[in-house]
Design goal:
The chain is α+β, with helices and mostly antiparallel strands. It contains 7 helices and 7 strands; from the N terminus they run αααααββββββααβ. Helix content is about 50%, strand content about 20%.
Length: about 180
Amino acid sequence: MKYIISESQHRRLNDDVDSNTVQKIATNWFKRQISRGEDPHIDGSLLMFLGVKTLSGNHVYLFDSIERFLGPETAYKVGIKRSKKIFNTNDYPDIQGGYDFKFTLDLVEFDETQYLFDVKILPDAEVTLIMTDGETHPIKDLINHEDIGWEIESEINDIVDEIMIREIGNYTGFFTTINSLKLT
């Protein structure tokens, strides 16, 4: 049986959402994903349905929901598996912001609630300086620049953080943290 809710019910849901409500909705969402052949995860549609912003209190409820759904041991293994690939900013045009680079993650530590990763930016990483000269520059030339190096590093960290949330946190319920950022 399919349940359809009205727009006013949906608005009330967003106003009254609590951890139990999130848990129930998320569990059903994850079961539907599995029935469609997908890995269970927090996706943009679920966030939009619940009116949840990334890393808000309700997003943390969702993290708890996916981790409970999978179980801690399975969630940990999913995170390890999902971290073993080359990530490309071109796959995330909504957060890329002029940056074009690939990176890998190396697990440094896991403490039952979060992964701590070293991030390695692969060669040929570039950024287009939209607000200054509009030109594309190698990141390695700008990361230590005395005027904008700190901003470049900060923006790279923000992009990597967002990708890790989408690719690991939303599939495991565990937080991800950057231990170090290295250019190779």
